[in-house]
Amino acid sequence: MMGCYDFCGHYEWTFDWLEQAGGRELLKAYWEEAISRDSQRHARDLIGRKGFDGMTEYWGHTLLEESPDLGFTISRTPQAFRIDMHDCPSKGFLLRNKLEQYSDYCDHCIGWVGPMMRDAGFVIDHEHNHLGQCWWEMHPASEASAPPLAPGAVSGKKDVRLQPNWAPPNVVFDCYDKATSVDDKRRVKPAP
Amino acid sequence: MNPALPYQDTKPQGSADFYYGINATFRFLLTRLGHKGWQSYLKSLGRGYYEAVNARWRQGGLPEVAGYWRAFFAAEPGAEVEVREAGDRVEVKVRQCPAIKHLREGGREIVREYCQHCYFLGTARAEACGLTMRLQGGNGICRHTYALPSAALPPQDMTQIREAGV
Residues of A with CB below 8 A from B141's CB? Predict the structure, then answer.
C-alpha cells in the first residue's frame, strides 16, 4: 500500500517516472489535472468562491496539518495574500531523508497552484531557495503590471527573505513574477 | 520516529488528505496511460522507490516484513490493522483501510481499481525479496499475505480483489 506518511517521497519519485514516460508535458499535465483539478479540488472550490478568504481558510488548515510546528506565516493586505515558508514540511522531509529522484521537486507547487490561481483570477509572485524556504504573494490579476512589493512590506519581520538562512553560499533561487505557470520560471544565482 | 520505516518524518502520522493525491494520481495514470501503464508505474515504484524497504526485507525476512507493516499502519491515520506472523507467511488483516476511509469521508470518487494497487505494488516488492504476495478483499477490508515460496500459495485470483467505491 502507498501511504500518506511518506507521501512526499513517492510523490517526488513519481515526477521523474512521469517525465521519463511522457516528457515534461505529461508531468505538467499531471500537476494541473491530477493535483490541481482533482486532488486539491477543495482548494480550488474555496479560492474560486472566496478569494483571499478562501486562501486563508485552505492554507490555514493544510499548512497547520502538515507543519504543526508552525514553520510558516500567513499575512494579508487588501491587495495581497502572502505565505512565508520558513521550514517547508514536504521539502524538509525529502532533505532529511535524502530523497531526490526528480531534478526540482519545488516545481510541483507552482505546477498545481499556478493553474488554480489563474482560474480564480490571481497572479503569483514567488521565490524559493530549494532548501525548504520560500515565499508566495497572490495578487488580483488586474494588478499584473504592478511592481513587486519590497521585502517586509506584507509580512514584516516574518518575511523569509530577511531570515539568515534564506541565501546561504551557492544558493540557487527560482523566481516567478506575476506568474501562473511553472514555465514562467526565472533562475537566479546570486553573485558570491 | 520508528526505525522499522526507512523514511522518517517529524510527525507521528501522515496527513490523510494525501490520500486524495494518491487517488488522483491513479486516476490520471489510468486515464492517460491505461491499465498497463498504471501497472508499469506500480511495478517501477515497487522496485525503485521501495528498494530501501525491499533491502531490509531481503536481509531480515518475514520478521522484518511484519515489523514494517506494523510501523507502516501505525503512521497511517485511521488504520485498524492486525499483523500476524505464521511460520512461512505474514498476514496483514486490514479491518479499516485508512485510505478508503478518508476518501469516503471526503466524498471523493475512488478509482475502482484502487485496491488492485496493493496487489501490483505488493507483488513487485515481494518478488524483489524472493517472496510471494496475495490479496483478498478490498474496498476498506482486506487481507494481504506475504509468504515464502515454500508456502506454495495458489495464484492470485483477481476476482478476489474487490472494486473500490464510495
Answer: none
Q: Cell numbers for A126, please give them.
A: 514567488
Task: Give the pLDDT band of residue A60 (cuts 50, 70, 90).
Answer: confident
Q: How far apart are alpha carbons A34 and A36 in whole angstroms?
A: 6
ipTM score above 0.85: yes
pLDDT digits (tens, 9 = 90+) for A164-179: 999 999 999 999 999 9
Instruction: Say if CB B50 and CB B72 are below 8 A apart.
Output: no
Query: Looking at the domain assignment, is residue B10 inside a domain?
Result: no
Tell whether A101 is within 8 A of chain B (Cβ). Answer: yes
Q: How far is A179 from chain B (nearest CA, A)?
A: 24
In a domain, B7, yes or no: no
**Nearest Cα residue in chain B from A101:** B49
Q: How far is CA B119 from CA A62, B4, B97, B108, B145, in A?
A: 31, 22, 14, 22, 10
CATH of residue B120:
3.30.1380.20
Q: Which domains does chain A have, with CATH numbers?
A: 7-145+155-188 (3.30.1380)
A45 reaches B (C-beta below 8 A): no
- Using alpha carbons, select from B93, B51, B72 the residue that is nearest to residue B4: B72
B70-118 tens-digit pLDDT: 999 999 999 999 999 999 999 999 999 999 999 999 999 999 999 999 9
pTM for the full predicted model: 0.95
Identify whether B104 is part of a domain.
Answer: yes
Number of domains in chain B: 1
Q: Which domain holds residue B39?
A: 18-160
Q: Measured between beta carbons, which residues in chain A are less than 8 angstroms from residue B44?
A: 17
Closest partner CB to B41 (pick from A17, A40, A89) = A17
CB pairs under 8 A between A and B: 109
Q: In angstroms, what CA-CA distances link A126 with A43, A82, A185?
A: 19, 10, 10
